[in-house]
Amino acid sequence: MSSPPIHPNLQQRRESFARRAESLIERKYAISTDKSGELIITVQGDLTQQEKRAVFLTVHDLGCNHASFQDFVNSPCMTEIKERSCFIHVDVPGHADNSGALSDNFAFPSLQTLGEDLVTVLDYLHVKYVIGLGEGAGANVLARFGLKHPSRCLGLILINCTGSAATVLETFKTKFISWKGDEVGQGAEDFLLYHKFGHAFNEQLVGDNPDKEKIVQDFQSRLHSTLNSKNVKQYVKTFMTRKDLPLKNCKVDILLITGMLSPYSTVVEKLHKDTDKEKVTMMKIERAGDVLADAPAKVAQSILLFCKGQGLLTSVVMPGVDRQRAFSTSSGGSNGMSMEEYDKPNIRRLSITVNDQLPPIQSKK
């Protein structure tokens, strides 16, 4: 005797519960690379389900570590994306929580070397391809990864990405940053706060996030307690000695995101100006310095739009759209596809999809 059919609503609730449970899975790995030493990797989500998920590779900015992206992924505005994705968070050398000082004879890798070595992380974890999600120095690293390994990269979402080498003035200023032994001096802290939060920090804590003040305090606390000052200094020096980024040669689709109050806003605009507009889209958010803190919901929506343009996260409904109606329409209603199956990355669709499915994202708020 056959068992009775499962009601569609019950099936969807079961799938939702399973996704939520998978998204809570967290594992850490220490992965040795060819030229960048050991990288500590934090994985959110179940990579055994990667065929049905979007897989993101994140690299953090100066003065922080994987926790900056982990906090963003755990925010309420990312819940729908998180439940249908896996996140591979990279800590650059010596930046994992409570790391000891790097050896004096350790040559901290350049941004180029870090980017090229990230493929080792994918190979170790048996991940075929990812969407890069990086901020600041980490965005520059991921851009170089995409340039070197386009077959492993489905797209790049780059926040406050710098395309040019450090200016003479920029380098001159950082020479006077004070690093007091194992502690971050006031000058270094001021630089890192300005680099991260921009003009919004110097004027007032603005933005849509009511927890902005706590985010800044957490950043300062981690800087003084969780991160090793000597290692942070090495990452800053590497960023200041960066080479030009030839992003116009990139073969993957890119979304550039910046805030109007970011110190790198004009740099991102210049980078966008020099790229192929068929491949690169820019989003500029008003009243934001650190867009992850000031406008997380706008960033989450932009990530979703970008992924949909790549044939990923297709069952996630945009805000203000009824879930049942959208799913029945997008999946053809009676084709028997579950939401789990519909979320599966469609590489065939990706290969013929161009940016006309992803309209330019312009933020007016």
Automatic annotation (TrEMBL):
<dbReference type="InterPro" id="IPR004142">
    <property type="entry name" value="NDRG"/>
</dbReference>
<dbReference type="Pfam" id="PF03096">
    <property type="entry name" value="Ndr"/>
</dbReference>
<protein>
    <recommendedName>
        <fullName>N-myc downstream regulated</fullName>
    </recommendedName>
</protein>
<dbReference type="InterPro" id="IPR029058">
    <property type="entry name" value="AB_hydrolase_fold"/>
</dbReference>
<comment type="similarity">
    <text>Belongs to the NDRG family.</text>
</comment>
